Amino acid sequence: MAQELTGKEFTGKRVIVMGGSRGIGRSIALGFAASGASVSICARGAGPLEATRRELEALGVTAHAASVDLADAAAIEAYVPEAVQALGGLDVLVNNASGFGHSDDEAGWAASLTIDMMAVVRGSHAAIPHMKPGSSIVNVSSISALRASSRSAPYGAVKAAVMHYTASQAKMLSRQGIRVNGVAPGSIEFPGGSWEDRRTSNPELYQTTLATIPFGRMGKPEEVAEVVLFLASAKASWVTAQTIVVDGGQLVGP
C-alpha cells in the first residue's frame, strides 16, 4: 500500500495536499507521509478527512487536516498559513481538488472554474510566499484535457486550462527556484469514487471506457501518486513545466 510507494526521500519535507481526503489525493498524501514528509490535507467532508489524517499520523509523521470549501477564496487564504504553521514550513504543494463540473450549463462551468481552476490559482498564490528555492508545485489535471467530450465539456476545458497554467506557473516561478509540473490521470477507480459507482449505475459506460484501456483495467490512485512523488522529488530536479499523462495507454486505445 502507501508504504510501498517510495523510500524516505521526503524526510524533513513539508507537504500540503489540497483535496487530500479521498482517492488520488489520499494516496498522494499517504505516499508523502510514508516517505517521511509532514503532511497537511484539506477537503470539505469531515469524516474522510479525519480518517485520512489518522492514517497519516499512524505513519509517524506530523499530520494536519482542516475542513475547507475550496470554492471559497477566503477559506483557502486562511487554510494555507494555518497548514504552514502546523508543518513548520512548506516544500511541496499539490493542487488536487475537483468540482467535477460535467453539465454544459452555468452550474457545470461554475463547479469546474471555481474549484478545478481557481483553487489551483488561489492555493498557489497563498503558498508561494512560504516556498523557498527547491520547492515544488504539482497540479492534477486529467486526460479529459486532451480530447473533446460530449459528456463533460466544462471539466475537460478547465483541466486543459490547468495544464496551460502549470506551464505558465513554471515559467513565472523559475527565477525563484520553484518547479511546477502536473499529472493528467486517466480513469482511476477507488472505493467511493465515480468509476466504482458507474460500475453498477452505468455499466455500459464503465465497460465502454474499460475497453479503451490496453491493460484491461482501471488505474489505481497509488499509480498516480507515484508520479506525483517523482515530480516533487530531487530525482526530477531538472523537470518543470511538464504534465505527465498517467492513464495506462487509455488515450491511444487498446
TrEMBL record:
<dbReference type="InterPro" id="IPR036291">
    <property type="entry name" value="NAD(P)-bd_dom_sf"/>
</dbReference>
<dbReference type="GO" id="GO:0016616">
    <property type="term" value="F:oxidoreductase activity, acting on the CH-OH group of donors, NAD or NADP as acceptor"/>
</dbReference>
<dbReference type="Pfam" id="PF13561">
    <property type="entry name" value="adh_short_C2"/>
</dbReference>
<dbReference type="GO" id="GO:0030497">
    <property type="term" value="P:fatty acid elongation"/>
</dbReference>
<comment type="similarity">
    <text>Belongs to the short-chain dehydrogenases/reductases (SDR) family.</text>
</comment>
<protein>
    <submittedName>
        <fullName>3-oxoacyl-ACP reductase</fullName>
    </submittedName>
</protein>
<dbReference type="InterPro" id="IPR002347">
    <property type="entry name" value="SDR_fam"/>
</dbReference>
